[in-house]
């Protein structure tokens, strides 16, 4: 009986879909936002250009580690909302972050499901913060987690200061108008919080991000890694998040 149950479990695992293979990273690119999927405030844009200060400071983090949110019913179904809350739970169980339905809070996250694109604002902005998950393109748990981590203040690891030690950019495959998306940010602009470069991070670009010919734009020097997975947070992602948001409600 136990062997039969084990065989059944193995069969289920074998036929489970690999969402990282089905996910179309182009939905993080086509809207033309900063590095594809981030909407920056004017101050954040100036900070990126000057390179003098962190783009997400202490005052840009969510107060008491709580993110009040609203899920738009007009563009997202009950099943969509359920998956979004499940993605939130994946972050909550490994951190002190709590996503709470909005009541009277002034600063909050509004989650929509417009027909095209997967994007979000970066960190906590005053008043309305936005995140969009297109139901037809990026309604995957890992893709939602990627955007929620942007909302919490995490940038793309692909642009981290030490990235050239760990990956190569195939510049000949990058669309000319998107070359700037591979700009390396100084450590003070995009802090790594003392965490070594993370090839397994959910916060990387996909391997063909910004490609004009369908070929890889980023290649890890360690061939055992595939950059840009959209399945789950890595251990270093979790560690970085907990450094950014130490216990704030206990």
Q: What is shown here, in short?
A:
Helices cover 26% and strands 13% of the residues. With 250 residues, the chain is α/β, with parallel strands linked by helices. Mean pLDDT is 90; it is low at 1-21.
- Report the strand count: 8
**Total count of helical runs of at least 4 residues:** 6
Head-to-tail CA distance between termini: 46 Å
The strands making up the biggest β-sheet line up spatially as 1-5-6-4-2-3
Describe the structure.
- The chain contains 6 helices and 8 strands, in the order ααβαβαββββαββα.
- The N terminus is likely disordered.
- By secondary structure, the protein is an alpha/beta fold.
- The strands form 2 sheets. A 6-stranded mixed beta sheet has the order 1-5-6-4-2-3, with helices on one face. A two-stranded antiparallel ribbon has the order 7-8.
- Helix 4 crosses helix 5.
- Its EC number is 3.4.24.-.
- It is an enzyme of class 3 (hydrolase).
Task: List its traits.
250 residues, alpha/beta, two-stranded antiparallel ribbon, 6 helices, 13% strand
List the helices and strands and how they pair.
Layout: H1 2-15, H2 19-22, E1 38-39, H3 42-50, E2 66-71, H4 78-92, E3 98-101, E4 108-112, E5 118-121, E6 128-133, H5 141-152, E7 167-169, E8 218-220, H6 235-244
Parallel strand pairs: 1-5, 2-3, 2-4, 4-6
Antiparallel strand pairs: 5-6, 7-8
